[in-house]
Amino acid sequence: MSTKSLRVLALVCSTRPGALGPVVARWLIDAVTPRAAELGVELVPVALGDLELPFLDEEEHPSSGVYRNEHTRRWSAIAGAADGFIAVTPEYNYGMPATLKNALDYLGAEWAWKPIGFVSYGNTSAGTRSVQHAKQVVTTLRMMPLGATVAIRIGDAVEQGRLRPDAGRDAAGVVLLDELARVAHALRPMRERARAGIASGPVPGSYARRLTPHDAPEVTVLQRCCWVEEAVANDTMAIPALHESPEDVRAWLASWHTTGIWLDGRLLGMVRTRRDDTDWHLGRLAVVPDLRGRGLGRWLLRTAEAAAEPGCRRIVLFTGAKSLRNINFYRSEGYQPVSPADQDGTIRLAKDRQATGKL
């Protein structure tokens, strides 16, 4: 499972005064919070009534993403930041509450490729018909309804307005959370690929985006895969990329602009850049060993060069002085050594920015 954290909204759907929804939501959060901590899940309760959403009042279709009203933009930001949802819902007349249907109808892209689980409550059917109704809607929004559910029969579970203790129900809540976390991690690449501004990568199905400190675990693994050959070629283990902890990586990801190529949740390659006076520095160019020779390194290098800021006169990078494969590659791209090998065993190469075609 991915090491990335997840943000899950527990949607309290009923707005009827005195409704059981807040009690059920409180039970859910109390029952699964220890497991959520183990899974790296942030569980956030959201009462639909607190959103103050009128019946859908946007002029544009939700698929457009054009939202005129502040309440819609607020709801968009809340739902868009989530990785998954658990709807705590009653059953009204064989269906889900109008509040849930209305909240779903307001948005479009914010729902896509996110799992949704259900905790239902009711009398005869324990709210299960509400869940079946909701599943027809959420699949249209490209959400993934879970197989695991929790169904609470009010007559059996409620006493004096509170839920009776029930170890079996607690265990079912944990199973629901576990399944939601697994599906949310599996769908993460699809969520990222659907975001605006994500560029296609050089391998079919891949995409490129800026890496953030949140990506430190994947970057740490990539570095340790890629710099072993450098260590062998240069007969040294004194290579920072081999020894950096995720915390070290997280720190430099915050200060360098780093582009990564992803495919199905796997980080295939990366390169980092930043400006130093009139130089544009490139570094940590890496491609997973099993995909070398397919143009990923060249694509990353040229992408980094094209991002050079105005006023930068040359592009500079470093590699091991004995890394002949790397040196030959950079020479083929117009780079030349500009100094003898440093004491740390690296050599600096550079080329004029004009040579990249970016004036």
Tell me what the structure shows.
With 359 residues, the chain is an alpha/beta fold. The protein has 2 domains: 6-194, Flavodoxin domain (Rossmann fold); 200-356, Aminopeptidase, CATH 3.40.630.30. 38% of the residues lie in helices and 26% in strands. The chain contains 13 helices and 15 strands. The protein has an 8-stranded mixed β-sheet with strand order 8-9-10-11-12-13-15-14, with helices on both faces. The chain has a 5-stranded parallel β-sheet with strand order 2-1-3-4-5. The chain has a two-stranded antiparallel ribbon with strand order 6-7. A hairpin with a 2-residue loop joins strand 11 (266-276) and strand 12 (279-287). The longest helix is centred in the middle third of the chain and has 28 residues, at 167-194. It is elongated and about 80 Å long. The chain starts with 5 loop residues before the first strand and ends in a 7-residue tail after the last strand. The model has no long low-confidence stretch (mean pLDDT 93).
Layout of helices and strands, plus pairs?
Layout: E1 6-12, H1 21-39, E2 41-47, H2 48-51, H3 70-80, E3 84-90, H4 98-106, E4 115-122, H5 128-140, E5 144-153, H6 154-157, E6 158-159, E7 162-163, H7 167-194, E8 199-200, E9 207-210, H8 216-226, H9 228-234, H10 240-243, H11 246-253, E10 257-263, E11 266-276, E12 279-287, H12 296-306, E13 314-320, H13 324-332, E14 336-337, E15 346-352
Parallel strand pairs: 1-2, 1-3, 3-4, 4-5, 12-13
Antiparallel strand pairs: 6-7, 8-9, 9-10, 10-11, 11-12, 13-15, 14-15
How would a textbook summarize the main sheet?
8 strands, mixed
CATH class of the largest domain: Alpha Beta
Beta-strand content estimate: 25-35%
CATH-defined architecture of the largest domain: 3-Layer(aba) Sandwich
Low-confidence stretches: none
The N- to C-terminal Cα distance equals: 45 Å
Q: Please count the helical segments.
A: 13
Domains, number? 2
Task: Enumerate the strands of the largest sheet in spatial order, edge to edge or round the barrel.
Answer: 8-9-10-11-12-13-15-14
Order of helices and strands: EHEHHEHEHEHEEHEEHHHHEEEHEHEE
Secondary structure tally: strands: 15
Shape, per Cα inertia axes: elongated
Question: What's the name of the CATH homologous superfamily of the largest domain?
Answer: Flavodoxin domain
Oligomer: single chain
CATH topology of the largest domain: Rossmann fold
Task: Report the C-alpha radius of gyration, rounded.
Answer: 26 Å
Relative helix content = 25-40%
Pairing-aware structural class of the strands and helices?
A: alpha/beta
Mean pLDDT: 93
